[in-house]
Amino acid sequence: MSLLLQVDTLSQAATQVAGEVATKKELTLMDIIFSGGLVGQVIMVSIFIMLFFAIYLYIERLMAIKAASKMDQTFMTQIKMHLQQGKLDNAKVLCASTNSPVARLIEKGISRIGKPLEDINIAIENAGKLEVYKLEKNVSMLATISGAGPMTGFLGTVVGMVMAFHEMAASGSNKIEMSVLAEGIYTAMMTTVVGLIVGIIAYVGYNHLVSITDKVVHMMEVNVVDFLDLLNDPI
């Protein structure tokens, strides 16, 4: 009988411990993220806004740059044919109907045919600067977010630590509750973790956009050189 009572007592104790563990595990990630008080929540919301803008800017610029990199492989061949036949109007129409930076640069050069080659080159360079600006539009915002995200996260951590120690000092108790201190610390550290994640995403996105933009710029330069060669020796 005594053995049965002991087993029943152990069973109840195990059930109680399991219930306490289950209760502790009910704390979700969102609870941890947004449990840092008003200041911590404001900082965390700011970081998530940065994350949203970083993803939006990356996708929008990626699609724009990919669209700019698409060009008919026979474009320059047709331009050469029109120039050799003296059909400048047909060449202009072809450029106007082709929505790409290369076509706009070639169109600018064709519109200057008859003027000194140096003037044509300068006109194309100026148009090229405008096209590069269009490709790089808002890309610098990703670089800003890649630095501002972690810094904002560090700010949240420092503010959270200051508030945690302030609560300890205001409690007036000589005994420090480690559970309260630990909760304040991991809540504060979450802002750093999320800020670093946002910074990494923005940094990788920025460098990828810069890489593919350089490829488009290189393609523009190659085709402009081919066009200028056509003007020097069109036949």
TrEMBL record:
The membrane topology noted for this protein in its Swiss-Prot or TrEMBL record is:
Multi-pass membrane protein
| PANTHER family xref list | PROTEIN TOLQ (PTHR30625), TOLQ-RELATED (PTHR30625:SF17)
Q: Where in the cell is it found?
A: Cell membrane; Membrane
Q: Which organism is it from?
A: Flavobacterium saliperosum
Determine if ATP-binding is one of this entry's keywords: no
Q: What start and end residues bound the annotated signal peptide?
A: none
Mind listing the UniProt keywords for this protein, alphabetically? Answer: Cell membrane, Membrane, Protein transport, Transmembrane, Transmembrane helix, Transport
- What is one process in the GO biological process aspect for this record? protein import
MotA/TolQ/ExbB proton channel domain ranges (all copies) = 99-221
Q: GO cellular component terms?
A: plasma membrane
- The main location class comes to membrane
Q: Which family does it belong to?
A: Belongs to the exbB/tolQ family.
Its recorded name reads: Biopolymer transport protein ExbB
This protein's superkingdom?
Bacteria
Q: Where are the transmembrane segments?
A: 32-59, 139-165, 185-206
